[in-house]
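Handout for the seminar on molecular recognition.
Each group receives one record of this type.
Step one: identify the two inputs.
Step two: read the structure output and locate the region that could contact (2R)-2,3-dihydroxypropanoic acid.
Step three: write two sentences on what you found, then compare them with the reference statements printed after the record.
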Amino acid sequence: MTPKKQGFSVWVTRRIPQPGLDLLAGFCAIVDVEPEDRPVSRARLLEQVRGRDGVLCHLTDVIDEEVMEAAGPRCRVFANYAVGYNNIDVEAATRRGILVTNTPDVLTETTADLAWALLMAAARRIVESDRFLRSGRWDGWGPMQFLGQDVHGAVLGIVGAGRIGRAVARRAAGFDMRLLYTDPEPRPDMDALGARRVELPELLSASDFVSLHAPLTPATRHLIGRAELARMKPTACLINTARGPLIDEAALVEALAERRIAAAGLDVYEHEPRVAEGLTALDNVVCVCHIGSATLTTRTRMAEMAAGNMVAALEGRMPPHAVNPQARRPAG
Ligand code: DGY
């Protein structure tokens, strides 16, 4: 059923694929989309949320108590265009009866693909070799050129066996890898893949590849610091497609520069869009720009899902992906 247009006013803090905007436009009287394709300033955020019934926001927007206060009493929902929602103070939203929603599942496989792209690129020195060729320095095949790490038959350690961690693990079967994982709870589908649940120190010292998939919480900030990097094999590669602050980035730069680990593949950074000093000067790190879910299909699905969550909340229904369902208020 096509939803009826209501008197709602919503703000989209940065443009998303059109199907999500169309869905909002079919339901709300006012849909304002931020014209600039860059993170909104704090001042703009505080100004534009005022009087809105809902806000479709991004992981680059810090949605805290001050923003909720600025939004005012009409605000029912912050629909985050991401599976992670560490940018939103969910407790404050719940206290105010504001729903927070996210976009799980649709981006799982796409993000797992990117973790593998980084793993392969870091292990086989793809970007370094590409840069070398383009620079005109390559003088032909060499027996000692760009020696990397074998992926097949290696040990893959998954830190956090949630949806994305498990999707990364499933792909390892094609490479005959052995799997280890850490997670607060046993995961039967990881066990079915032959994965063994261990504590983090064991995973770090036994793995050839360590891939991070834990959510960012106060407990997981700097999960990988100097001590943890020191446990890793000198031939190991560290992959992060989760959240940057899981790694102490300055400590990682040191470990890579001193070749205490072989390589890293990073999609996310501790202080995005800045990266730690010295990181980009290193040859043994592959850096991409937080593109885990960045395929046209997945970002379009995320847009539809975020907009669907928003519409449900405005209608007084429970959004399919509410992270604080207890905040729901009756319609009106
Ligand atoms: C997420 O969804 O949390 C990703 O980091 C952004 O697509």
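Reference statements: The chain has a mean pLDDT of 97. The first strand starts at residue 6 and ends at 12.
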